[in-house]
Each structure stands twice: as C-alpha cells, then as structure tokens.
UniProtKB/TrEMBL annotation:
Residues 36-55, 230-249 bind DNA. Pfam families: TetR_N. This is AcrR family transcriptional regulator. InterPro entries: DNA-bd_HTH_TetR-type_CS, Homeodomain-like_sf, HTH-type_TetR-like_transc_reg, HTH_TetR. The lineage of its organism: Bacteria, Bacillati, Actinomycetota, Actinomycetes, Micromonosporales. Keywords: DNA-binding, Transcription, Transcription regulation.
Length: 384
C-alpha cells in the first residue's frame, strides 16, 4: 500500500491524452506501419503493458489519433458564430492546426490505413468543416468555384503539418492565415493559359523489365500503401513469377527508392523547363509544379507519402533533392516579396504545395488545361 500510493499520486490524470498526442507525432513522422507500440510507450514514459491497458492494439490507438484533429477543427468551428467573417473562421482553424502541427501529418497520407468505415466517418466529419468554410467563402467572395477555394484555403492551413520549418507558432499563424485568406478570395480564372506555357517531358516509357516493374509498382503503392503491397502483387501485374522480381531489385524497398528518385528527377526537369519558359518565371514555376503534380500524381503521392519510412542512408539524396527544389522556389518568392525571410518564404512555399495536394484530390486529379489553370491561380494566391 505504501509503494502504490506515490505511483498513483504521480500518475497523470490525462495519460490517455498524452498517449494519443505522442502516438500522433510518431505516426506522423514515421508512418503507421513503421511505428511500434513500444516506441510510443517510450515516448510517454510508460511500459508497453501500461499502454495496452488504454488501447488494445496499435490500430485502436491510430484510430483515436485520427479523431483528434477533426474533433479540434469541428470544435473550433462550433465556437465561431455562423455570421462571423471568413478571417475569424480561418483563424480558428489555423490555431487548432498549428497546435497539432507535430501530429497532424498523418491525415494527409496515413489515413488510408484506416478501416473503410473509420475512413468514411473521418471524411464525413471533414466534409462538415469544408461545408462550413465553403458557405462563408460564398458569402464574402461570390466567385466561381467556392468549394474548391475553401478546400485550397484548408490545404494552405494544413500544410504546416507536413514540414519542420522552425518558426514561432504565432508567426506561423499569421503567415498561414494570410495565405489561406488570399486563396479563398482568388479568382480561379486569373491564370488562364498559364499551364499551357510549360510543357513537361512525357511519362517515362518502360523499355526494360526493371522499368516495367517500377511502372507496375507505383500505382499499387499509391493505392494501397507501400507496406500493404507484396512482391507477389507487383510480379502479377507484370506477368512474372514473384522470385523473378529479385533479379531486378534486391528487395521491395529498392523499388520504392527507384520510384522516389524518378519523381525527384521528373520534378527537376519540370523546374528546369519552367526557368527557361518565356512567361513570368514565378507563374511558370507554379504552372510547371501543378502540371507535374497532375501528370505524375501517383508517382508524386508515393514519393511524398513513403519517403519518411526509408532508412536514413537511402533517404538522404532525396532530402537533398527536395532542398534544392525548395531553394528555387525561395529565390523566386523572395524576389517577389523581399519582406519575407527565408523561413517565412519556405512556410508559404509549403502552403502552396498544400493547395496543390488538396485541390488536386478534390478534382480527382482529372488532368485538363482548365483544372491546371485553376490550381495554378490558387497556388499563386497562396504565395503572393
């Protein structure tokens, strides 16, 4: 009894909340499959056995983490009066998102690992958030595409969960809120014709068995997640015996590395062409990135979602390529907005990327000149 007293006294009353917060951060940084219950328990300072007293398995904990952000967003909206201005609405959503920055990344890519019913429920609750923002956007800015502009604004806000740029939370809120507010007010027709000015190289044509394996694996990784795809499925898609895969790739992770490297190479080509385009270089850069995202959306989603799960040695060249890519954007953005320092510029660049991801999804990545132009206009609104 004497030994149990101090332990009970020091046990935090909000341990379940602490567990969910720690787990959300680990799931966001490492991915659902790479994270372990032992690692999560260590992050909270408890044993794995104690963790299992709160959650019966990793999936139950993951599902609880998935509810945190949407609960916070819905609660923030409920606290804002129905007739409040758009800026107040977006400010409330921004505060919640920044508060959950470390754990919010799991919603963009890891939510696909939720069971179908849980995923459907999560989407319905996010749809409520989108609907509320759409109504306010329509009221204040009666332009075409109010729902897409609402989604774009939320994409700009949600982007803060997808990178680690070190900057004060209050400054993050200020920059992201301004970006989201501009996006919501952007005329989607303001970049008509911009996408046509930058032509990208065509899709790589598989000319070897190794290339065929890569081309078959990418859509499987994009649809089901790298961890859920087997070599047998990849082999079947190519018409090979599973053992034949190993003649071309030592393991499945090597196929993933090849996909990420291919994505980095194609993006570098897109950027290079944009810098030599006759159009305004900033508009051309945005249009090229949008075109790349539509043209190679499966490949890009694989690279974005799975790179964090690679071993450090394999991830390093991809991180270097990403930094080089961001540096090009930073140079162009700071030329247009010299008041921005490097960190603020990077934050806004990621906001632009967030706009592309969320609007592309909303458009189901239907690759038309009109859709490319619309997304290009919204990204420009997020940046400048």
């Amino acid at each position: 009894m004497t030994s149990a007293g101090p332990a009970a006294a020091t046990r935090p009353h909000n341990r379940r909340q602490l567990i969910v917060e720690a787990a959300g951060q680990i799931f966001s940084e490492r991915g659902y499959h790479a994270a372990s219950m032992e690692e999560i328990a260590g992050g909270v300072g408890i044993s794995a056995a104690a963790l299992y007293r709160h959650f019966p398995n990793k999936y139950a904990l993951f599902a609880a983490c998935a509810d945190v952000m949407v609960d916070g967003l819905a609660g923030a909206l409920d606290a804002v009066p129905a007739d409040a201005p758009l800026r107040d609405l977006l400010a409330a959503l921004t505060r919640v998102t920044v508060a959950h920055r470390a754990s919010g990344g799991l919603y963009r890519w890891e939510a696909r690992y939720l069971a179908r019913d849980d995923r459907r429920r999560l989407r319905a609750r996010f749809a409520h958030v989108v609907g509320r923002v759409t109504e306010t956007v329509r009221r204040e800015h009666p332009l075409p595409g109010e729902r897409l502009r609402a989604v774009a604004a939320l994409g700009a806000i949600g982007s803060v969960t997808m990178h680690h740029t070190s900057i004060a939370p209050r400054r993050i809120e200020e920059l992201v809120l301004a970006s989201a507010t501009r996006v919501a007010a952007t005329d989607p027709a303001s970049a008509v014709g911009s996408a046509a000015r930058v032509e990208l190289p065509g899709r790589p044509v598989p000319r070897t068995r190794r290339a065929e394996i890569l081309a078959a694996a990418v859509p499987l990784f994009a649809r089901d997640g790298f961890a859920n795809v087997t070599n047998g499925q990849i082999a079947q898609a190519v018409g090979l015996a599973p053992s034949a895969i190993y003649r071309h790739y030592p393991g499945k992770v090597d196929i993933l590395v090849a996909a990420c490297l291919q994505a980095a190479g194609l993006l570098a080509q897109a950027v290079d062409r944009s810098l030599h385009a006759p159009a305004d270089p900033r508009t051309a850069l945005i249009a090229a990135y949008v075109a790349y995202s539509f043209e190679h959306n499966a490949l890009n989603s694989v690279a974005e979602a799975e790179v964090r799960g690679l071993p450090d040695a394999l991830r390093r060249p991809l991180v270097v390529a990403q930094r080089e890519h961001i540096a090009v954007w930073e140079q162009q953005l700071r030329a247009a907005r010299p008041e921005l320092d490097a960190r603020a510029a990077r934050l806004l660049i990621h906001a632009g990327f967030g706009v592309v991801v969320e609007t592309g999804r909303a458009l189901r990545w239907q690759d038309t000149p009109e859709n490319r132009d619309t997304v290009t206009a919204l990204v420009a609104g997020a940046l400048i």
